[in-house]
């Protein structure tokens, strides 16, 4: 078994990766700013961009799973995206090269393709239009430079789409909560399609890549891609709720989001609705995930099963 360093191992995806690696018999070291109490004995509390913390974590390691990231869409100042996502990658690669560690799995993001994507493949043009996406693309470039420095270096990159599951409090959770509490209203016509991914499937995809000995970059999404109307109906069915009928034109949603953006700046707080979130909600966000399946990966759960499991864990037990 291997000694594996998981950066960001206290997070939503990272903590599940750590659990699975331990269950497989690996020796795991977590490097994270936050200490998950369940992993306190194996955690080095530190910043992925701090060479001293990284060097300490990497001593004796065989491989690195880099899940550390600034990823929320409201991180301020935006320089934090680059400090963690890019400089953190640079420090990791420097220390790995110095210590002879030859394998990294990196969770990048489909944000490298930009908004309003339509079945993007891994080789399509990368046009990120926010700092998160730009920082992830830059981090990929740093990793690729490391990979080319030695023929033995293996870089495995997974670009997940929006990930959901029990314990997450991102945009998909907000959608689930709104449907389950009867507070949801559709912005736009609901015909835009979304690629999303259940967390347990993403974890298994990461471990599938870790088992490989050759470099590869893959997208990850659970299929089929549902449009917003279909997704809302699936959530409502999983939770035993009626399908919401209220619809607000996109232009009105953008106006409301803009007004709340102004109020957020004045009050120094964030609101669940903003222009960026309305724009993301109404955009097509579809990626092609056939490459990882062509390599032999099969997700353990269907998308519908993932939605049902999340609703059951977070809200109720469907009858």
Q: What would your notes on this structure say?
A:
With 319 residues, the chain is of the alpha/beta class. The chain has a domain at 3-167 and 196-223 and 287-301: Rossmann fold. Helix content is 43%, strand content 19%. The protein has helices spanning 12-23, 51-58, 79-99, 131-148, 171-180, 199-210, 228-239, 250-267, 275-282, 290-294, 303-314, and strands spanning 3-7, 27-32, 43-45, 63-66, 103-107, 117-120, 154-160, 162-164, 186-187, 193-198, 216-220, 222-227, 247-248, 285-287. A 7-stranded parallel β-sheet has the order 3-2-1-4-5-7-11, sandwiched between helices. α7 (228-239) crosses α11. The longest helix is centred in the first third of the chain and has 21 residues, at 79-99.
List keywords for this structure.
319 residues; alpha/beta; Rossmann fold; seven-stranded parallel sheet; three-stranded mixed sheet; 11 helices; 14 strands; 43% helix; globular
List the helices and strands and how they pair.
Blueprint: E1 3-7, H1 12-23, E2 27-32, E3 43-45, H2 51-58, E4 63-66, H3 79-99, E5 103-107, E6 117-120, H4 131-148, E7 154-160, E8 162-164, H5 171-180, E9 186-187, E10 193-198, H6 199-210, E11 216-220, E12 222-227, H7 228-239, E13 247-248, H8 250-267, H9 275-282, E14 285-287, H10 290-294, H11 303-314
Parallel strand pairs: 1-2, 1-4, 2-3, 4-5, 5-7, 6-14, 7-11, 8-10, 9-13
Antiparallel strand pairs: 10-12
Helix pairs in contact: 1-6, 2-3, 3-4, 5-7, 7-11, 8-9
């Amino acid at each position: 078994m291997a000694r594996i360093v998981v950066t960001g191992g206290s997070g939503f995806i990272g903590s599940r990766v750590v659990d699975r690696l331990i269950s497989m018999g690996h020796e795991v070291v977590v490097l994270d700013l936050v200490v998950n109490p369940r992993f306190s004995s194996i955690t080095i509390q530190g910043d992925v961009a701090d060479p001293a913390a990284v060097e300490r974590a990497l001593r004796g390691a065989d491989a690195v799973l880099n899940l550390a990231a600034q990823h929320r869409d409201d991180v301020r100042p935006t320089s934090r995206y680059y400090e963690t996502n890019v400089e953190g990658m640079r420090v990791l690669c420097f220390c790995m090269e110095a210590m002879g560690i030859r394998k990294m799995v990196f969770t990048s993001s489909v944000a490298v393709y930009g908004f309003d994507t339509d079945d993007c493949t891994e080789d399509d043009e990368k046009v990120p239009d926010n700092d998160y996406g730009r920082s992830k693309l830059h981090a990929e470039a740093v990793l690729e430079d490391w990979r080319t420095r030695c023929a033995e270096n293996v870089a495995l990159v997974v670009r997940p789409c929006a990930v959901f599951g029990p314990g997450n409090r991102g945009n998909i959770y907000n959608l689930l909560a709104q449907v389950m509490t009867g507070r949801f209203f559709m912005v736009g016509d609901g015909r835009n399609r979304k690629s999303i991914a259940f967390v347990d499937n993403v974890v298994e995809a990461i471990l599938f890549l870790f088992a490989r000995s050759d470099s590869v970059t893959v997208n990850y999404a659970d299929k089929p891609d549902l449009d917003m109307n279909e997704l809302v109906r699936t959530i409502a069915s999983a939770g035993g709720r009626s399908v919401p009928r209220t619809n607000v034109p996109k232009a009105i949603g953008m106006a409301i989001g803009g007004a709340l953006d102004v109020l957020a700046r004045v009050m120094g707080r964030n609101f669940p609705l903003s222009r960026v979130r309305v724009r993301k909600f109404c955009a097509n966000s579809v990626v092609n995930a056939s490459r990882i399946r062509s390599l032999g990966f099969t997700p353990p759960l269907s998308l519908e099963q993932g939605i049902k499991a999340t609703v059951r864990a977070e809200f109720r037990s469907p009858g």
